[in-house]
Amino acid sequence: MAITPYTGPFTDTELRHLLRRTLFGCSNADLDHFAGQTLQQVVDALLTFSNDTTPPVKTYWLLNGNTPDPTLIDANVPFGNTWINTPRQTADEPTVSGKRIESLVAWRTGLLAQQDRTLREKLTLFWNNLVPTEASTVFNPEFMYAYDQLLRDHAAGNFRELIHDVATSGAMLLYLNGYLNNYFAPDENFARELMELFTLGEGTGYTEEDVQTAARVLTGWTIQVEQGGQPIIPQTIFVPFLHDSGDKTFSAFFNNTVISGQTGPDAGETELNALLDMIMAKEEASLHVCRKLYRFFVHGGISEAVETGVIAPLAELFRDNAGAPDQMRIVMEALLTSDHFFSTDVRACMIQPPVDLVVGNLRRLDFPYPTAAQLEARYAGWMQVYSLVAYCGQPLFQPPNVAGWPAYHQFPQYDEIWMDTTSYPARSNTLAAILFAGFTTDGNMYEPSSQNLEFKADLLAVVAQFSDPADPNVLVQEAADLLFAVPISAAVRDQLKSSFLLFGQTNDLYWTYAYTTYVADPQTTDMAAQLVPVMLQALFNDMRGAAEIQLF
User: Fold this and answer.
1) What residue segments make up the domains of the chain, in order of their start?
2) What is the band of 1 on the pLDDT scale with cuts at 50, 70, 90?
């Protein structure tokens, strides 16, 4: 049974819904970019991407007296160069690890904040939630960078290949103690999460003995961080004598499958592949992944009708393309072009995660960032974005546990978890900071081009993108379209217009005259025109406080 495709109108309304769920926010520039394209054309474009990211670089230093000096830390990496291929020197630890992780986090946040118009960043974040690691637990920047690249490489690829590489990645081996799992002291941590969280789902039929047996399959994989007493770029290795070479027999849930014990340097790879083949043969794996996709991109609650009409056909498509290198692209395309995805039941039905709220509003307001020539300021700006997202309750790359963010799995609240009496003030304050404060750099930076800079949202530039900003009715309506995922009533539009653009007057010409006069000459002495920036800021600030801005 195939999922029902969408055949309805594809107007700006549908395009906005699609882009809000696949990008971080939907800006006017996004709409212009996809204007006139069909649903299939837009989805094809969103799902066409590669992992062409450039690596993070060193922008950190220590003070030499009162002078920033990058040679005092991670000295083998020049300022502005990447650190990913340079071993950390033992004498510098743990300070260098911390600085490299900060660099990685800033870089990774920058990829979200200044994303291209594809699903790459949203899908990579999805995998970060499904097969998460915690930066503070792993505390190995090279492994964390490699893990991010792994998720990017497989973002729209083959699920089994992704899980294979996750199982042997240094970051996951560190995170779930796989590097300690060996014949002499088996550790079940990764084997348990592999079945419970990553592939099959809790309570689907596998047994405790299956977990223990899978742990035996996975013995022998570990990490290497030095060679001959000297630091090296950390790597994953398989040590044959640490592997349990006995046969492994699984329960009736897995049809009593026996994985023959192997010896030698290829034993780990051979048995791992046999384990994954066994797990992926279960229908539960396809259902589990498709439910996760649905809860991330569509809605938390899955009714019987959704299970039958959406999850089941998606899972069938997932299984039918089990060997396809673009398996996840095929599944995502079907979901994003489905009739259900565009139903009124799932439009604007979720509270925005902090990353969507923060990055989405920065993108909607065309927030400026430092240029490539202002490298240090660029990383500082991205780190401030990270801090805002964390302040709202979602420290990226630091989920609360191996289950990922509760909003994507915690029944029955799901996305409602994102907002409560504690997080709402933080969310509101963050939106105010984006609107009013922006961010600045001080004079105490190593790079002169990054010193004493200021970056703020330009609301005049934002409304200049509207079809007719001199008309207060158009301006209010298009501001609402930009900021809100739900329509507002004519009464609310009139109230916003009267209170903030007309100063209580009844004639629309008051705003038209003031706006056109100010745009023609920002240095004008006309008193009404001088107030235009203030009126716009007051309008956007009031809309910033509306409940509608929390939804997507």
Assistant:
1) 12-18+286-346, 122-285, 459-550
2) confident
